[in-house]
Design a protein that fits this description.
By secondary structure, the chain is of the alpha/beta class. It has helices at about 15-20, 40-45, 50-60, 70-80, 105-125, 140-145, 190-200, 200-205, 220, 225-235, 255-265, 310-320, 320-325, 335-350, 355-365, 370, 390-395, 405-410, 425-434, and strands at about 5, 10-15, 30, 85-90, 95, 130-135, 155-160, 180-185, 210, 245, 270-275, 280, 285-290, 330, 375-380.
Length: about 425
């Protein structure tokens, strides 16, 4: 499989280039050029096939011209010492839990896969690379865990002053680890501006193999496409009708990954989600993207500090617009409908649901006509552990879920005990020092 930029289809690169140099010079994002037909791999799996084996087989099928099957299996085995879970809630409702991870966040899947892919590529090429990302907690905690023991990867994480959490002192570079946390005496928006300014310096970025661990990197996004074949492997013996997936849009990464899975021949009937400012319903009730009339080349460069995968979603729309407009099913959801859905999930299924999961379930209720036809079922995607959203749950339900010890570690503040930086030049100097 090759990859192209969303803004220049003639910019064709291999997987290694797309992952190490994840930022096309034209300001776009890398996307698969010609998704393979992986039907025989997907249909061969069953409810005993481990997630790591599914990930290894699909990786090998997608990039077999670069990695041997053994290397693909090794990457996936090292990356996925944990896996999603499917739970049956009712005859037509299932939950796909992505929160059974070391930090309770779905990010662990993408970050662990990206880190292990990159470490393999860099080892084979005798190179090094550096992540530069803004973090408020979960991303940093996940990245630190995945990078322990890696020899070719370092990460500079930019935090607003006083916000680092979920790290251990042994993770710090000055203690022999791979993480260099940097505090800035400013808000999160200013931290993002600093990172944007660094990535605007293409010569600096390319000279140091500087990249990101967020979903702007296709290596972080790609493993999210494995969630859906895994779910299908568990469902195909239990359901005989249509399968819909319901999720919160977030930055559209899971939605885009779901569409990539469909392009790879995954049996799926559609995706249900709440509408957003960018993803809405047209007067006929079909899905529409507000920015799609503006050509990519006439837009600002993609934002690698706070990426939105909307441009990737639009790229899929442009390729198969007639079909996809009847494949995504957004629903207008109010805050009160979201909160009612949160309470229903708790009362019916004993699920503590965060705001995103509650909104996705509210969208299912709003689109119930899809499920009532032809014995269809819905898979509700639960991205993060409820204990990461105690404030919302306590406000909505009047009680909080129990916070397990591993989540307490993620939420634990960390003292860096180093002066705050004040400029982009200081940030660049730290990066150079690595």
């Amino acid at each position: 499989m090759k990859f192209i930029s969303t803004r220049d289809s003639s910019n064709i690169v291999n997987f290694e280039k797309a992952v190490i140099d994840c930022l096309p010079a034209d300001g776009g994002f890398f996307v698969p050029k010609d998704p393979a037909d992986l039907r025989r791999w997907i249909l061969y799996t069953n409810d005993h096939t481990p997630f790591s084996s599914i990930a290894g087989s699909l990786t090998s099928a997608c990039i077999n011209d670069e990695f041997s099957p053994i290397i693909c299996e090794t990457i996936s085995t090292r990356a996925f010492t944990f896996e999603p879970k499917i739970k049956k809630l009712s005859e037509r409702l299932f939950a796909l839990e992505l929160c059974n991870t070391p930090t309770g966040s779905h990010r662990d899947f993408g970050i662990s896969y990206l880190v292990n892919c990159l470490e393999t590529l860099l080892t084979m090429g005798g190179k090094n690379a550096i992540f530069l990302d803004v973090s408020m907690g979960e991303l940093g905690a996940s990245l630190a865990r995945a990078m322990r023991g890696k020899k070719h990867l370092k990460a500079v994480l930019v935090y607003p002053k006083g916000s680092p959490r979920g790290l251990e002192e042994s993770d710090f570079i000055w203690n022999g680890g791979n993480i260099y946390p940097v505090e800035v005496d400013c808000n999160i928006a200013a931290c993002h501006d600093m990172v944007r300014e660094v990535f605007a310096d293409r010569a600096f970025v390319e000279s140091l193999n500087l990249t990101v661990a967020n979903t702007a990197n296709i290596g972080r996004l790609m493993p999210q496409a494995f969630f859906y074949p895994f779910a299908f492997s568990r469902l195909k013996s239990q359901v005989c009708g249509d399968i819909f997936y319901a999720m919160a849009p977030g930055n559209y990464s899971n939605l885009v990954a779901g569409l990539y899975s469909w392009q790879l021949a995954l049996p799926v009937s559609g995706f249900i989600c709440p509408t957003t400012d960018e993803l809405k319903l047209d007067p006929l009730g079909n899905c529409c993207i507000m920015d799609e009339m503006v050509d990519f080349k006439n837009r600002e460069p993609g934002d690698y500090a706070t990426p939105s995968n909307l441009e990737r979603l639009e790229k899929v729309f442009k390729a198969k617009s007639l079909m996809l407009k009847h494949f995504l099913y957004p629903a207008d959801i109010s805050n009160s409908e979201r909160d009612d859905a949160c309470r229903e999930l708790f009362m019916k299924f004993n699920i503590y649901a965060d705001a995103d999961t509650s909104a996705a379930y509210a969208a299912v209720l709003a689109r119930k006509e899809l499920v009532e036809e032809d014995d269809a079922c819905v898979v509700l995607v639960i991205r993060d552990h409820a204990a990461l959203s105690c404030d919302y749950i306590k406000h909505t339900l009047g009680e909080m879920p129990e916070i397990p010890d591993f989540i307490k570690k993620v939420l634990q503040p960390v003292a860096i005990n180093r002066p705050c930086i004040k400029s982009v030049d200081e940030l660049k100097q730290i990066i150079r020092s690595l």
